[in-house]
């Protein structure tokens, strides 16, 4: 979007004339003349410079409680995108920054005495004090009133048209109006300290130290010809075990230098009133209140491991200045500012959280092959991907692929994977998706076409929807079943088609029971709403309705538990005769077996409730009954909800233990989903948002996993597989959008091979169709005047 801030009149670029006094603020205009900025960090200073440059008549004051050169940290990294915005908005600031920037391309990952280097990344950094000096100079040139060692008056909203609260993560402005801004602050699990070295690293350096107390990591990058930022980070427990909690600042700095002596070339570290702290993620429900608006860390924070704090603050300033120029009222301008920035910030915070949690869980990855470990680190935030890294550094990416076992020219997603006696030709799974289109539980022509099309679309494994083990175990009247011979024969028709017309594609069945979430309308008629007529009684682990208007289930008796266990076993026998290659037991999403696993839905006081071990008892009994009748050479998987996204529910730690329990009973892989267990859940949606749970289970236990959850691109699949975060990727909506998603992924990557075989009748379409040219002929010759 082209911003007004870009087109500043030339006459406004020089030193500003003295601004007139405006005793009465004009809150009804989006062109505020009296502006107060609380906080003299980069975001506040840059906002002051932009607003003054756009209108030299503005009276702008920056209030900063500390000295001009007081700062937290040493270096600042800015992206090319941010620098581009600065260049357009204020070339003088940009030129000053350019003169001081240190630039480099490489990232070094040092782990177990092995260094791997990846190039082509492009970084620019400078000292934080120098950045402040540049902004101080620019503000003074423009006539901004900078007041250091001065607390901001409490009545600024009354005396000024606009108050910009850029007062940092501990914002007193935000806290004073917490009832309006509604901040949510999450404290994370690592301690870190911000230090500096007196020499420049020649790359962005990540170094891992495995000490007797636990894992520690160094993040380092150059910011001046003779200096580097060094951040030392470790889990809270490691910090305590190493005794850092008992050391003063000087002793901590000396200890850190000793631990990372090789990386530091034996040089000492220096501090700047540095203290160990824990990172806090700040999110606010609102960013403005009347004529007060939050900016930078006061509004939001993002972990330093993706270098985004100053970047976000500067971009906030650019957007706020533009919105004030583009809208007629202050209210409209502040609303537009938040609407434009919030999704960008949310995306950055998701990436930052993924990066932060990767380092929190660093110990899980220490035994990965060295290059895979490096690739995993580089792609941890999901912003750098396999395809993106290939463009940056093809040699490094190809080396990782070779180590993984990819034949030349074969993307990771098209490598085979073995589960018991079944070898899948690629890593793509068509995820189970309820179609609600069966009649009396019998799958018909719709299912034949639906599953047959996706089988011919190239996926290694196609899964049915949840197939119910009894009539009472249906979710809706349209659910498919395997509780009659007629249903089994109908399924055999489908498996025969898949095996005959899509050779090499496996088809799996997912068995489940609705539990308390049954007897509801078809999804498109009202999801989770009870039927208006024809309801059937529900059963569950405990007599708790799913929603206030839902039917209350009966708590299952011992005798009923036995009956249901036998229903699952009988359905598994029918599934085997129907020709399915794999069977998955559905223990997720709040259905019957999931209801036993979660403490939020299992309130039993008998042998099937209470501790996690007891809550596992019935699902494991069902698993054993099914495994006993399911052919020994055919694999079984289990789908679980790895978190309930609700306080007091299943946690990620619980999920690891649940996975271990099923694997001990013979599960070949865990299909890791999340949520849908309680109606008041609060999932953290985002791209690939459920994959960290699969990652954790795989790397904590060594059990194969299937990752699910907003995985939408083949690039994501390649990245997850190659990083060792999952073994298989299950995609649902992408396969609704494109039944031939896998074959098209192969075509788009230029892959032809055994991992993606086009059906003979479709081979003529195995290349992307030609399109009309959209590019204009390029000039061949430019003549000077």
From TrEMBL:
Give residue ranges for domain NADH:flavin oxidoreductase/NADH oxidase N-terminal: 413-746
Q: Pfam families, per this entry? A: FAD_binding_3, Oxidored_FMN
Domain (FAD-binding): residue spans on this chain: 161-349
Name the segments for region: Disordered.
1-31, 760-785
Q: Which domain of life is it from?
A: Bacteria
- The protein here is known as Bifunctional salicylyl-CoA 5-hydroxylase/oxidoreductase
Q: Which organism is it from?
A: Streptomyces coeruleorubidus
Which taxonomic lineage is given here? Bacteria, Bacillati, Actinomycetota, Actinomycetes, Kitasatosporales
């Amino acid at each position: 979007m082209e911003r007004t801030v870009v087109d500043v009149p030339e006459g406004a670029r020089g030193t500003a004339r003295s601004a007139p006094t405006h005793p009465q603020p004009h809150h009804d205009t989006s062109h505020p003349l009296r502006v107060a900025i609380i906080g003299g960090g980069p975001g506040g200073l840059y906002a002051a410079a932009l607003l003054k440059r756009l209108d030299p008549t503005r009276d702008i004051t920056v209030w900063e409680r500390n000295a001009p050169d007081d700062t937290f940290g040493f270096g600042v990294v800015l992206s090319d995108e941010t620098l581009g915005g600065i260049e357009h908005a204020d070339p003088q600031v940009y030129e000053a920054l350019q003169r001081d920037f240190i630039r480099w391309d490489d990232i070094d990952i040092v782990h177990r005495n092995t260094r791997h280097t990846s190039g082509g990344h492009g970084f620019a950094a400078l000292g934080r004090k120098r950045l402040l000096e540049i902004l101080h100079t620019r503000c003074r040139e423009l006539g901004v009133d900078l007041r250091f060692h001065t607390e901001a008056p409490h009545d600024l909203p009354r005396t000024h048209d606009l108050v910009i609260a850029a007062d940092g993560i501990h914002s007193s402005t935000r806290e004073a109006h917490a009832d309006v801004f509604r901040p949510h602050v999450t404290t994370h699990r690592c301690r870190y300290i911000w230090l500096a070295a007196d020499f420049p690293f020649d790359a962005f350096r990540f170094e891992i130290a495995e000490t007797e107390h636990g894992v520690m990591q160094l993040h380092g990058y150059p910011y001046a010809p003779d200096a580097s930022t060094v951040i030392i980070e470790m889990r809270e427990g490691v910090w305590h075990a190493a005794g850092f909690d008992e050391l003063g600042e000087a002793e901590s700095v000396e200890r850190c230098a000793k631990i990372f002596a090789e990386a530091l070339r034996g040089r000492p570290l220096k501090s700047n009133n540095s203290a160990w702290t824990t990172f806090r993620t700040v999110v606010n429900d609102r960013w403005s209140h009347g004529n007060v608006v939050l900016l930078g860390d006061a509004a939001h924070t993002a972990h330093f491991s993706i270098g985004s704090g100053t970047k976000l603050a500067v971009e906030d300033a650019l957007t706020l200045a533009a919105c004030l120029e583009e809208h007629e009222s202050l209210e409209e301008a502040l609303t537009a500012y938040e609407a434009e920035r919030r999704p960008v910030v949310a995306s950055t915070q998701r990436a930052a959280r993924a990066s932060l949690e990767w380092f929190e869980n660093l110990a899980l990855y220490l035994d990965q092959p060295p290059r895979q470990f490096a690739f995993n680190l580089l792609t941890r935030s999901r912003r750098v991907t396999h395809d993106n890294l290939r463009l940056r550094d093809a040699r490094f990416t190809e080396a990782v692929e070779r180590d993984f076992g990819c034949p030349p020219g074969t993307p990771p997603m098209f490598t085979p994977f073995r589960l018991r006696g079944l070898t899948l030709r690629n890593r793509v799974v068509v995820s189970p998706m309820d179609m609600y289109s069966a009649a009396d539980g019998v799958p018909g022509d719709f299912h034949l076409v639906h599953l047959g099309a996706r089988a011919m679309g190239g996926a290694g494994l196609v899964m049915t929807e949840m197939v119910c083990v009894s009539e009472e175990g249906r979710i809706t009247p349209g659910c498919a079943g395997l509780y009659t011979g007629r249903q089994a024969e109908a399924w055999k028709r489908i498996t025969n088609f898949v095996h005959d017309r899509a050779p090499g594609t496996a088809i799996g069945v997912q068995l489940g029971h609705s539990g308390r979430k049954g007897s509801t309308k078809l999804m498109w008629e009202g999801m989770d709403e009870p039927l208006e007529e024809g309801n059937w009684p529900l059963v569950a682990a405990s007599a708790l309705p799913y929603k206030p208007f839902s039917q209350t289930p009966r708590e299952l008796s011992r005798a009923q538990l036995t009956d249901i266990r036998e229903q699952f076993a009988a359905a598994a026998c029918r599934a085997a005769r129907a020709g399915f290659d794999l069977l998955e037991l559905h223990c997720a999403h709040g259905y019957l077996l999931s209801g036993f696993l979660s403490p939020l839905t299992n309130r039993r006081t008998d042998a099937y409730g209470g501790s996690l071990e007891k809550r596992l008892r019935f699902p494991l009994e069902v698993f054993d009954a099914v495994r006993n009748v399911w052919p020994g050479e055919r694999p079984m998987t289990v789908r679980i909800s790895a978190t309930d996204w609700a306080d007091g529910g299943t946690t990620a730690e619980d999920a690891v233990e649940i996975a271990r329990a099923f694997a001990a009973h013979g599960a070949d892989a865990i299909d890791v989903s999340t949520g849908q267990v309680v109606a008041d859940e609060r999932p953290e949606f985002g791209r690939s948002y459920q994959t960290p749970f699969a990652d954790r289970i795989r790397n904590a236990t060594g059990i194969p996993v299937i990752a699910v959850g907003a995985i939408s691109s083949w690039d994501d699949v390649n990245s997850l597989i190659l990083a060792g975060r999952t073994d298989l990727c299950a995609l649902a909506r992408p396969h609704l959008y494109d039944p031939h998603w896998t074959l098209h992924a192969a075509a788009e990557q230029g892959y032809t091979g055994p991992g993606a075989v086009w059906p003979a009748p479709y081979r003529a379409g195995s290349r992307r169709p030609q399109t009309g040219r959209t590019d204009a002929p390029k000039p061949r010759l430019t003549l000077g005047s």
